[in-house]
Structure formats: structure tokens, C-alpha cells
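Hi W.,

Here's what went into the run:
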Amino acid sequence: DTGVSQDPRHKITKRGQNVTFRCDPISEHNRLYWYRQTLGQGPEFLTYFQNEAQLEKSRLLSDRFSAERPKGSFSTLEIQRTEQGDSAMYLCASSLWGKGGNQPQHFGDGTRLSIL
Amino acid sequence: SQQGEEDPQALSIQEGENATMNCSYKTSINNLQWYRQNSGRGLVHLILIRSNEREKHSGRLRVTLDTSKKSSSLLITASRAADTASYFCARRPISNFGNEKLTFGTGTRLTIIP
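Here's what came out:
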């Protein structure tokens, strides 16, 4: 169990640029979640996958955001035409669903995005 | 929007003292989880308590849940400097669709003074 890994840890970009983040979940976990956390706040749910299927998207996830989990393993989160308001920590979490429920989510260290 | 709040927002205590944080929520839950977050890092899972449980322990941590009052508390006994962090409660709502998405509060910032 190597934990949830996120890359990059930090990303600084100019407004209007596209960015992509990667998340590698714990290997046996079939569920993968993306959250966004702004300064002084708790994480807010963005979207989640069960295997390769994206099952729910928050209204926070505008059409500039897209997430994929093509092979049911790693996931990417892309933000197109970044805006100042996109500056935040993007957290990925994974869990094992279907083994009796009530399983905790395990979080990565996040990608901190700063928009100049 | 985030449902429920942690209380207090910030807490400073001397090393060795006990720290108590509270969490209130609005909608019925399947379970409630407590997480710790060190500055600039991800969240570390501490304890999960199911809606039919009233108390759970893990080392120096004790969590209680009162579903009638829609509240939970986290007690850290014999605090250490390493306990300095933000603590969040996260609610998993009752769902017919198996979605385990969590709803977090704004957290309690705990500072342990050596």
C-alpha cells in the first residue's frame, strides 16, 4: 500500500492556460474521488468514479473541467482556460467499495494550483 | 455548500491537555468520519463512526455521535505538539445510489503549545 499519489504537487500557470493533474489511487481501490479545497475551507466534492465510469459530477464542475479514469486505475483532471477562481488545492481520494460499505477514503497530498 | 460546522474554529491548548472539537450537521447520515490535515498536506483518516454507533476509540482519540442532536465530538487526550493540525468532520449522507461522497465542514484549527 503506497498510498494515493498526486502529480504535480504544485502548479503555477497564467490565466487562460490549460492544466492537467494526475492521481494514482491505492491499487486495489475501485472508487476515486476529486475534491477542491480553498484556503480556510474544507474540501468540496467535485466528481467520483467507480472503476472507469464517472458516476456523479458536482455543479461546481463547470464545462471547463473534465475528469477521466480511462482504465479504471489512474485519473486525470483537466481545467481548460483557467481563471483566477480556479486557484485551490485539488485533492484526490480513493476507497474500496463493495466490501461491506463504510470504508474510509484515503487522500493524496493534493495539487496546489495558483493562477497568475 | 458545506453542511454543518466544526466548533470551535480555532483552539490553542498546552501540551498534555485534552482537546475537544465538535461537529454539527443538518441531514441524516450513513456515517461520520474525522480527518486530520497538516498544513499544505492531504487529509489523514482518523476514525469512522457509523450512524448506529455512539462511541469509538482509537489510541488517544475518542469520537462520540449523537444522531438525535445531529452532532459529533472528537476528543484528543494527552495532546502532543505533533497533534497541531486542522481537524475536519466529514459526513456521508444516506443515499440510495451508493455514492460515498463526503461533505466537510470548515474545520477546527488546533494548536498545541509546547
